[in-house]
């Protein structure tokens, strides 16, 4: 049989001849078999193309009525992040907590107060980041083997046990060990929650469910600030343990919710578990007036997932961390990593140290904790506001605009650091509140949407992990220098720190303009094509691409790929599992 055989198919969606290329010399197909496989493959391609167009034009109302279960499951999994937001804010706020400082701190006669030594502030603040780096890489390997759900449940069980260490800590070294170990399961939360959110929802809901991860961070920070405000004036020497102990409340209910949730269908397709993938899709869909039967939609979604995964596999067969740095994937890895890095090096550390920052800026302890509560409440309002803003503006516009406004605010804060008096202290506190609102309206939430959209499907988990670890490495450096910037026993920059972060804001703004693409309104298949064609960042928005072109797909996946997909599609049967 000739190496290249051309057929003209009578398919309504195409009047062009298509060519099937033999990828190897082993095995032969009869003409009838090739005709049969090719015809079915063309149907799958047409199905996928139609579904991609429908997803692209699906409105918010239709998305809400078709995917309410997907929304619920995504919200449950993302709730893991509340725990991490709670604890990370807790520890940094403890540096301004009188009982904690007296228990673990050192008395400084010249200041007439207890302070946690700068070296220990640095060590404790970077401890979680060290654990998270290890946890992220481990989570990527484990999740590839057993899936997102089981990895997250195991992480929640681990958290429940490790809380005992920080709760019963008797000295700073014990607290340090507890924070490092807690960082390991937190690493799994950081990557798998946002990846799951992006994979179970359609394009119209993606920005809401991925940015909800940022809302979970803020909710955790807000809860910890409220609890700290409630116990800050307590005379009980063990009052600082109450906030630690409250962390035992949520692992079990969240784990139960995750156990009941369906696995990501994209992960199941990548793992070759096609029947489970289709049933997972069915569990994410709901019938309504315009969708009396979810089976046709589930079929089309499954066809699209198969084609996207097979096409990416043909372009880049590997799925290791190393493959994220190969020529075809490196641009996507770089953009995702620098996007997440920008979130961390543009002043957000001042929010994490806000209570301590306020006290060093001149506000009393009680008012500092009150300001922190207001700050995180504004952060939550900002995240919700980003959902409305995203309806009008694109991801890039929100991200870039947020960076520019943050730059201005940080410059003003830094200048006020040279001014003495209570008026300047109140102005600095007020500006930091505005900064928090702007950050959580723009850069904060939109980052989660961008880093989940930019990677390819097959390398998404690995790319998100690498990107988050770039964030965490920066977090370690920031954890080293921030206490020195703020601590009166060290550099004592106080509000002048704003000028330092304003410089990084300018650099990140310039980078974003030249390299961060606009992903709004683009399906995963369209993004694959745009990156494959090397379209420049500023042309992503205006460039239209053709997805699921039968001729291109056949040339990429070859004879065996076509056969595998057709047979996998034919072998799948739905279950009657109900949720």
UniProtKB/TrEMBL annotation:
Q: From the UniProt record, which GO molecular function terms apply? A: carbohydrate:proton symporter activity
Superkingdom in the source lineage? Eukaryota
Q: Where does this protein reside within or beyond the cell?
A: Membrane
Q: Which SUPFAM superfamilies match?
A: MFS general substrate transporter
| Membrane topology of this protein | Multi-pass membrane protein
Give the GO biological process terms. maltose metabolic process
Q: Which InterPro entries match?
A: MFS_dom, MFS_sugar_transport-like, MFS_Sugar_Transporters, MFS_trans_sf, Sugar/inositol_transpt, Sugar_transporter_CS
Q: Which residues cross the membrane?
A: 152-170, 176-197, 209-232, 244-261, 335-357, 369-389, 396-420, 426-450, 470-486, 498-514
Instruction: Indicate the principal place this protein occupies in or around the cell.
Output: membrane
Major facilitator superfamily (MFS) profile domain span: 73-520
What family name appears in the similarity comment? Belongs to the major facilitator superfamily. Sugar transporter (TC 2.A.1.1) family.
Query: Protein name, please?
Result: Unnamed protein product
List the source organism.
Ambrosiozyma monospora (Yeast)
Q: Taxonomically, what lineage is the organism? A: Eukaryota, Fungi, Dikarya, Ascomycota, Saccharomycotina
